[in-house]
Amino acid sequence: MDNVSLMASFSLLFPGLTAGDSISPDRGEVSGTDGHSVTLRCTYETNSDYPDLFWYRHHSDLQAPQFILRKGAKKETYQYNSNQNRYESQTTDTSTELTINRLTLADTDSAVYYCAVRPTVTGNTTTLYKNLWSKDNTTLHNIH
Fold first, then answer.
1. Would you say residue 95 lies in a domain?
2. Beta bridge pairs of residue 48
3. Which of 108, 76, 106 is nearest to 92 (CA)?
4. The domain spanning residue 65 has which CATH number?
């Protein structure tokens, strides 16, 4: 059986993170063999009650990282997974795990894997945009 090497890295990919937000891999390198599951884990801290957690895979500098999955944590429970038969994810209030299923682990899985956290902005229900067009498509002007 071939040995497959996986690198876990961390990323604060998204703007809007506060000073209390951080994410880091529990181990820098994980290896496994064909036919066995491999689990990567990152620990995160955020002040957000509704953070989004992301996993990406990056094969080389010649291509952009590939999206694997997005998962809500803490008070959110949704998951968007690019390939549900291949990847599984578990989250807690402080960590996220990505499992590459044992039946499909192969040399092509050798890559750098990124975990990322993004706090979700909530609570602002006021209008952020005001339409300055009337119903007949003429511009409305404010008169001071």
1. yes
2. none
3. 76
4. 2.60.40.10
